[in-house]
Automatic annotation (TrEMBL):
InterPro entries for the chain: Big_10 (IPR041280), LD-transpeptidase (IPR050979), LD_TPept_cat_dom (IPR005490), Transpep_catalytic_dom (IPR038063)
Phylogenetic lineage: Bacteria, Bacillati, Actinomycetota, Actinomycetes, Streptosporangiales
Record domain L,D-TPase catalytic: where: 244-369
Biased composition annotated in UniProt, kind: Low complexity: 28-51
Tree of life domain: Bacteria
Residue span of region Disordered: 28-60
Designated name of the protein: Lipoprotein-anchoring transpeptidase ErfK/SrfK
Gene Ontology terms, MF aspect: acyltransferase activity; peptidoglycan L,D-transpeptidase activity
Origin species: Thermocatellispora tengchongensis
PROSITE patterns assigned to the protein according to its UniProt record, in alphabetical order: LD_TPASE (PS52029), PROKAR_LIPOPROTEIN (PS51257)
Length: 397
């Protein structure tokens, strides 16, 4: 081989070494410029903790009591929500995703509330605490009276529930939703508004006898009208007694009393003489309302000297309408069972009238037949004179 050939190969060999070095260096530099998975996790931004939002906002004052409390978690799910006032919890519930909680019942007026909530998410836990206060209503709505509601009293199967409010109600639907009736032996029933301050509950059929009925007015926080909210709840237990049905036939001059289907009294009576409208006994379904012994009875719209004028004291009188009708004692035994001579009342022999007086329950049914004057549905407790279909039309719901 020529010397010139050797001199040429040497540089080639050196070049080869140099190129190999470059390649090697290039391979070893790869990991430095491409991060490993572990390194990528270390440098990725962390997920934020959940955000809890509450309405009403923290520090709110004059919150409407009928406003719902809403708690929402963004970026996570709610673990716990508590809304309290005076140590009492506000009822509420989560949605299916547990990202939203909403209170169920109205809030109390003039009350401070505390909201605490916690949530969890990919970014960890979150907690929230806030407070708000409900407004003081310009007018406070409450139940002024519930009838019947005498402690220990048993009432008849026809008894209504009459609720009287202390303020005129304009938002009747909202208030009616807050009126709850629960019976041990339930039967359909409905409310009817007879005025802006009074609602009456009547069943479709008579109450089943011998049971308890619980009435509650959950008015606290309920809006009854402009600037008017309920300030407290009311409840009453109503005891339904025996099924007492009295049937009066003014043509046969008889009255038969049945208790739980069994005849317990037969009475000869005298009814209204029907010379005028006011002296005509009303036919229809009456309810016993109250009693007194004696009752002063004065002829309506007549002056002394009028042949039809009277002013008398009557014993053992049980009221069955507001137009002056009673079942009462009278010693005109000669007429009882024979003819109608009264001024509209049902009178009976004194001892039998006393028995009726001693044994009746408010709300017992007295069905009178045989006259041409119908009892008006709003004459006393004549509510059974109206069909239930018509009765329900008086409901705000």
């Amino acid at each position: 081989m020529h010397a010139s050939d050797r001199r040429w190969r040497a540089p080639l060999a050196g070049l080869a070494v140099a190129v190999g070095a470059v390649v090697t260096a290039g391979c070893s530099g790869g990991p430095a410029s491409t991060p490993s998975p572990a390194a990528a996790e270390d440098t990725a931004p962390a997920a934020p903790a959940p955000t809890i939002k509450v309405s009403p906002a923290d520090g709110s004052a004059k919150v409407r009591p009928d406003k719902r409390v809403v708690v929402v978690a963004e970026g996570g799910t709610l673990e716990q929500v508590s809304v309290t006032a005076g140590g009492k919890q506000v009822e509420g519930g989560f949605d299916e995703s547990k990202t939203r909680w909403v209170s169920k019942a109205p809030l109390m007026p003039s009350t401070s509330y505390t909201v605490t909530a916690s949530a969890t998410g990919a970014g960890g836990p979150a907690e929230h605490t806030s407070t708000f206060k409900t407004l003081k209503p310009e007018r406070a709505l409450a139940v002024a009276d519930v009838t019947p509601n005498v402690k220990g009293e048993k009432v008849g199967v026809g008894a209504p529930i009459i609720v009287t409010f202390n303020q005129p109600v304009s938002d009747k639907a909202a208030v009616e939703k807050a009126l709850i009736v629960k019976a041990e032996k339930p039967v359909p029933g409905a409310w009817r508004w007879v005025s802006d301050t009074q609602a009456i509950y009547r069943t479709a059929k008579y109450w089943p006898a011998h049971q308890k009925v619980l009435f509650s007015a959950r008015l606290a926080g309920v809006r009854g009208g402009k600037d008017m909210y309920g300030v407290k709840n009311t409840s009453a237990v109503i005891n339904i007694g025996a099924k007492v049905i009295s049937t009066v036939d003014t043509r046969k001059h008889t009255m038969v009393v049945k208790r739980d289907g069994k005849t317990v009294q037969k009475m000869l009576i005298s009814a209204g003489k029907a010379t005028t409208r006011e002296y005509t006994t009303t036919s229809g379904v009456h309810l016993t309302m109250e009693r007194a012994n004696p009752v002063r009875m004065i002829s309506p719209g007549r002056e002394k000297g009028d042949p039809e004028y009277y002013d008398v004291m009557i014993n053992h009188a049980v009221r069955i309408s507001n137009s002056g009708e009673y079942v009462h004692a009278k010693d005109n035994v000669w007429a009882q069972g024979r003819q109608n001579v009264s001024h509209g009342c049902i009178n009976a022999r004194p001892d039998q009238a006393k028995w009726f007086y001693d044994n009746f329950q408010r709300g017992d049914v007295v069905i009178i037949t045989g006259t041409d004057r119908e009892l008006e549905w709003n004459n006393g407790w004549g509510f059974w004179q109206m069909s239930f279909k018509e009765w329900k039309k008086g409901s705000a719901l």
